[in-house]
From TrEMBL:
Family: Belongs to the UPF0162 family.
The protein, known as: Regulator of sirC expression with transglutaminase-like and TPR domain
Pfam families: TPR_9, Transglut_core2
Domain Protein SirB1 N-terminal: residue ranges: 75-199
Source organism per UniProt: Streptomyces paradoxus
InterPro entries, alphabetized: SirB1_N
Length: 283
């Protein structure tokens, strides 16, 4: 299967406008933002496809039992429906596919990265009235049900397996070498979830220099989020230069140098030197 390619410039600009508007709304809609990420990645995903993905989330939610009980009962109900009956899960090979980070593809393939499978769990459960939220464990995103004192964790990548405290500890130790800190178990903000998804896309593209188009749209969407690392501007500038847009890249580098100069003049000078080198490539 060929990797998806972004839509034409006019469609891309419209999608970015909608993404920025949703990200800055009072209550950002996680599924809408993730689907707009998918549309920015895949020029074949049109408005009908966006609507169909939302309808599928609604359909799955309608298959859940009515208010099954407390947090553990919700976690088990989601596992039985999505993991066992519908076959949503992940494998190591899914990390090698861009589609594993695109919600509309995950809904079709029923495979994806932990964070995208968690989005499916959250959005289906939320529609059904469950007390659900994302939990951004280091290196492995999971979902949580219920309040702190009765929190139940489930791992959608493993088909929704309900985790014991020891299971969560092993996941964190494997990623960090240290134990679970209570702060790791707090509900993840939807915009932080989206930024983490875009970080995964950027990591996928970084390993594939021929897909700088993917890296560029992922960086540009990240920059539209209300809160993002300032260094993303530098990354965007480097991508523009890499793609032969030397003037645009130089302008971005110079703008970033102005920001950096307030805290590190030496670093700012190095970035200005990169801007000069980019302009020199026009000769």
């Amino acid at each position: 299967m060929r990797p998806p390619y972004p839509p034409p410039p006019e469609r891309s600009a419209e999608l970015r406008r909608r993404f920025a508007e949703e990200a800055r709304s009072e209550r950002p809609d996680l599924s809408a933002l993730c689907l707009l990420v998918g549309a920015a990645a895949d020029g074949e995903l049109d408005e009908a496809g966006l609507d169909a993905a939302q309808v599928e989330l609604d359909r799955l939610a309608g298959l859940l039992p009515f208010r099954p009980g407390g947090p553990r009962a919700w976690a088990v109900a989601l596992r039985e429906l999505l993991g066992e009956r519908m076959g949503f899960h992940g494998t190591p090979g899914d990390y090698q596919r861009l589609e594993s980070s695109l919600l509309h593809e995950v809904l079709v393939r029923r495979r994806g990265l932990p964070i995208l499978l968690s989005v499916v769990w959250m959005e289906v459960a939320r529609r059904a009235g469950a007390p659900v939220y994302g939990v951004a464990l280091p290196g492995h995103f999971v979902v949580g049900f219920g309040p702190d004192e009765g929190q139940v964790l489930a791992d959608p990548f493993d088909g929704g397996r309900v985790l014991t405290g020891a299971d969560a500890e092993l996941l964190v130790v494997g990623a960090t070498g240290a134990g679970v800190d209570p702060s790791m178990l707090r509900p993840a903000d939807p915009l932080d979830v989206v930024l983490r998804i875009l970080n995964n896309v950027r990591a996928w593209a970084a390993a594939r220099p021929e897909r700088s188009d993917v890296a560029l749209w992922a960086v540009e969407l990240s920059l539209l989020l209300p809160s993002h690392p300032a260094r993303l501007r530098y990354e965007r500038a480097q991508l523009l230069v890499q793609r032969g847009e030397f003037v645009g890249g130089a302008l971005e580098l110079e703008a970033y140098a102005e920001v950096v100069s307030a805290v590190d003049e030496g670093a700012a000078e190095r970035v200005r030197g990169e801007a000069l080198a980019a302009r020199a490539m026009l000769n």
